[in-house]
Design goal:
3-stranded antiparallel β-sheet; globular; signal; alpha+beta
Length: about 110
């Protein structure tokens, strides 16, 4: 009985720490011009008011979302997703572009 209580507490903590929305990003800058099409490509729920794709609507396809983001470029550097796996987040730190500002374009 104690095991199940601990198990549920861990699951709830994990769910609380996950993001509710995914975006195509680079160096902290989000790019709705890429997020919208990538979200739509996966039949996700895109909120144009804040440029978010509901994470729950693409939760089975986070890797595909990241791959789509990478087909968009800012200063010839591919975007990535802020809603991906730890290895992908480590890769984000290697990107070297100024501020992540500007308009991303489809590669």
């Amino acid at each position: 009985m104690q095991f199940s209580s601990i198990f549920f507490a861990v699951i709830i903590a994990a769910l609380a720490s996950t993001s509710n929305a995914c975006k195509c990003v680079i160096n902290g800058g989000s790019h709705p011009e890429a997020t919208g099409p990538c979200c739509s490509q996966l039949n996700g729920d895109f909120d144009s008011s804040d440029g978010d794709c509901a994470a729950g609507s693409i939760s089975e396809h986070l890797s595909n979302f990241r791959s789509c983001c990478q087909t968009w470029l800012l200063n010839n550097v591919p975007l990535t997703s802020d809603c991906d796996f730890p290895k992908a987040l480590a890769d984000v730190e290697k990107i070297d572009t100024p501020q992540g500002e500007g308009i991303a374009v489809k590669a």
